[in-house]
Design goal:
Blueprint (H helix, E strand, L loop, with lengths): L2 E9 L2 E8 L2 E3 L3 E3 L4 E3 L5 E7 L1 H17 L1 H4 L5 H15 L16 E9 L4 E10 L4 E6 L1 E3 L2 E7 L1 H17 L10 H12 L10 E6 L4 E8 L9 E4 L2 E2 L10 E4 L4 E4 L4 H9 L13
Parallel strand pairs: 13-16
Antiparallel strand pairs: 1-2, 1-11, 2-12, 3-4, 5-6, 6-7, 7-8, 8-9, 10-11, 12-13, 13-14, 14-15, 16-17
Length: about 290
Amino acid sequence: MTLVVAWTRTTQTGRELWMMSDSRLSGGKNWDYGPKIFGIGRSDGIIAFAGDTAWTYPLIAQISSYIESFVDLRDRALDLIDAYDLVIQMLNESLSFVSKPAHPSMKVPECSFIFAGYSARRKDFFVRRIVFHPTRLLFESRSARGIGGEIITHIGDKDPMSAMVRHIAERRKKSKTRGAKLDMQPAEAFYAVLSSKQFSEIGGAPQVAKVYQNMSQRHLGVYWPQDVENHEQNIYLRGRRLKKFDVLDHPWVYEPSSARLFWHDFSPDTRRENSLVQPELVEGRLVAI
């Protein structure tokens, strides 16, 4: 199943939005290869899901198709908040096209989403959960909560989600600073829960995406797994292990155990050199921020 968390973070240069998920798909098997964080067809927003993939993948595909198909939505003439309202309408409209379910329960979506990005009109980040109300039979919006001057929300399976929330609460309780910044505490809690291997509902490499105040987004590679030496780790992007000559369009790779970004040299010359040396000599981590 799934664990997803999204939150805002204040740095020395401004604010940014982070989103993380695991990579496990289930349904008679565990498949640690599933992308769960997606763009929405414009640069200022991203979306992630939890729940039944028979619902989530078609609906996310429809969201991105809808936004990409209309110039006002695609080119951000309409603010992200207006796009969000239209997405909610579209999701509810989609329910009227369900027919001939094998069982009545199959007409009820078992899924939720996090829709997040930067609103130019508000000049602030916009983070919402989308949940299905079982009585009103509609997709509805839920606001994120505020912690330490930031906003945070999460979706997923109950047990790992509860463990992550407890981890954040305990960490903040131990802090001696009143109203301490949220910073990377959600990332640390997410990693602690995922790496504990206590929850079969989640697994695979973490997926990490960011949205910036300039209304751009970036999906980050992740060093994984964490229970091997550095030189034995691979880089995963959105659940998939990069091959030897896969090159990202930016140099930053996320290291989950330290919740930090490292500069990774993806230049062709370095990739060729690394492919010729012994594995124990390949490091690839030069500068941390």
